[in-house]
Amino acid sequence: MQNKKVKIIYFSLRDSNSREVELTCGSFFTFIGACLGLMLVLVALTLAFFTDFYQDLEISSLTKVNKHLHKQLDEMGGKLARIEKRVADLESEDDHLRIVADLPKIDDDTRDVGVGGMLDVNYELPMVSDKIFDYQEVLDKMERRIELAKHSREEIKEKLEYNRSMMKHTPSIRPLEGGRISDKFGYRLHPIIDKIRRHPGIDISAERGTEVYATAAGVVEKVATVYKMNRGYGKYVLIDHGFGLKTLYGHLSKVMVRQGQTVDRWKPIGLVGDTGLATGPHLHYEVRKSGKQVDPLTHILD
Q1: Which residues fall within 8 angstroms of residue 273, CB to CB, at 6 or more apart?
Q2: How sure is the predictor about 106, in pLDDT bands with cuts at 50, 70 and 90?
Q3: Residue 52's pLDDT band (cuts 50, 70, 90)
């Protein structure tokens, strides 16, 4: 085996000359091994170079994407901060409107619904996913705050409508123009029977035929035109204003409304007279609240 040799003949393409090299088998296999080793080294170096090259490209690309995402997230954070400021302004306005509507203020714990405070957009997070999660949490909380404010506005609207209706149906004016209050609410010496009796309303002396007005909006509950001489209210009108309020207008000479009729404040309902138990022309005016007679003077604002 040691005496065997390998002859390698190679030609030149330019001048067609040939050359030959003789190698022992050991030298030949050593040469082949060296060539293979060199090829493997070259392949490994090539793979390493291109692997590092593509990794560098990928890292560079991811870095650019990451910076772009951070920039977009920072812009989103600024928008979230501005939105949160507007939500806070909305809540401040809502507190004022609840005061106007006579509604209790929403307490801070309910208003915050787990929100810790204004959003800080200047901090650095190690992961974009962490920042996205944080912003999503802020958005969820602001959504709940906006829903709470929306519900509060609906509540305020309903309460204001209720207050407006209640004011419209609350007695608040003199039932006639002019005249003089001759008897007030409370106990008094009755001018006819000469005994101490509770007077459930006020008497306003006025000329016979003076128009009497409804003191608030309501529905005529009862009209009495038949009466006994020197007994009771004589001809009278009873109006139900809702909200537990009713008014009575007695001793009328003429009734100008009918039972079940809807009336507004300042609507003429009758004329001053002296029907029933009366010493002269005047209006007996009562205000009843939840079935109890109260001082009408507390319901006269004009």
Answers
A1: 208, 209, 234, 235, 251, 252, 253, 254, 281
A2: confident
A3: low
The two tokens of residue 151 are 């519900």
DSSP string, 80-144: HHHHHHHHHHHHHHHHHHHHHTT-PPPPHHHHHTT--SS---S---S-HHHHHHHHHHHHHHHHH
Tallying the residues shown for the chain, one arrives at 302
Is the predicted pLDDT of residue 151 greater than 60, yes or no? Answer: yes
Specify the residue for token string 């793979």. Answer: 47
Displacement of CA 3 from its chain's centroid (Å): 104
Q: What is the pLDDT of residue 222?
A: 96
> For residues 211 and 217, what is the distance between their CA atoms, to the nearest angstrom?
17
Helix (H) or strand (E) holding 153: helix 128-168
Match 């870095």 to its residue by tokens: 63
Closest CA to 172 of 256, 254, 241: 241
